[in-house]
């Protein structure tokens, strides 16, 4: 697990660069498989970032500063509402569309912010050590 945390920042950077390259390739080539790649890469990034940050948050070795607490709170909101959305869609429960639209908008707005925040947290973990102060 320590080896994974050693390369945490590099893994996230690589996945985000691949994600951005896929978006650019899709804009240029308009191939359908690239749209599927964007979808898969997005959820892979979200899964990896959420998992790593949750493990670090629950670990006593890493500082529990405000930015990590905020990341965990907001990302857990996104994950929980997404799972509720999937379950309700699967069992065909109708939503009040105004409420549903706000949840979808919040996902669109929060996702890039969470990706960047996770990179910032990992950068400060790497630069300052596990328990040093960061913003």
Largest sheet: none
User: What is the CA-atom radius of gyration, in angstroms?
Assistant: 17 Å
Helix content: over 70%
Order of helices and strands: HHHHH
Question: CA-to-CA gap between the ends?
Answer: 25 Å
Arithmetic mean pLDDT: 84
Spans of at least 5 consecutive residues whose pLDDT stays below 50 are none
Shape: globular
- Count of beta strands: 0
- Structural class comes to mainly alpha
**What is the count of DSSP helices, taking H or I runs of 4+ residues?**
5
Oligomer: single chain
Strand content: under 5%
Summarize the structure.
The chain has 135 residues and is mainly alpha-helical. The chain is 82% helix and 0% strand. It has helices spanning 2-6, 8-29, 32-58, 66-90, 97-128.
Topology:
Blueprint: H1 2-6, H2 8-29, H3 32-58, H4 66-90, H5 97-128
Helix pairs in contact: 2-3, 2-5, 3-4, 4-5
Give an overview of the whole structure.
With 135 residues, this protein is mainly α. The chain contains five helices and no strands. It has helices at residues 2-6, 8-29, 32-58, 66-90, 97-128. α2 runs antiparallel to α3 (32-58), α3 crosses α4 and α4 packs antiparallel against α5. The longest helix is centred in the C-terminal third of the chain and has 32 residues, at 97-128. The mean pLDDT is 84.
Using brief descriptors, characterize the structure shown:
135 residues, 0% strand, single chain
């Amino acid at each position: 697990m320590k080896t994974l945390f050693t390369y945490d920042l590099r893994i996230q950077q690589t996945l985000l660069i691949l994600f951005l390259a896929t978006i650019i390739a899709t804009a240029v080539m308009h191939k359908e498989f690239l749209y599927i790649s964007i979808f898969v890469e997005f959820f892979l990034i979200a899964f990896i970032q959420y998992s790593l940050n949750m493990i670090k948050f629950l670990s006593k070795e890493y500082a529990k500063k405000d930015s990590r607490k905020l990341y965990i709170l907001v990302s857990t909101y996104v994950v929980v509402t997404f799972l509720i959305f999937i379950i309700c869609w699967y069992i065909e429960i109708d939503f009040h569309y105004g409420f549903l639209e706000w949840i979808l908008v919040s996902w669109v707005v929060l996702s890039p912010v969470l990706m960047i925040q996770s990179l910032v947290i990992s950068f400060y973990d790497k630069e300052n050590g596990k328990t040093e102060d960061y913003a």
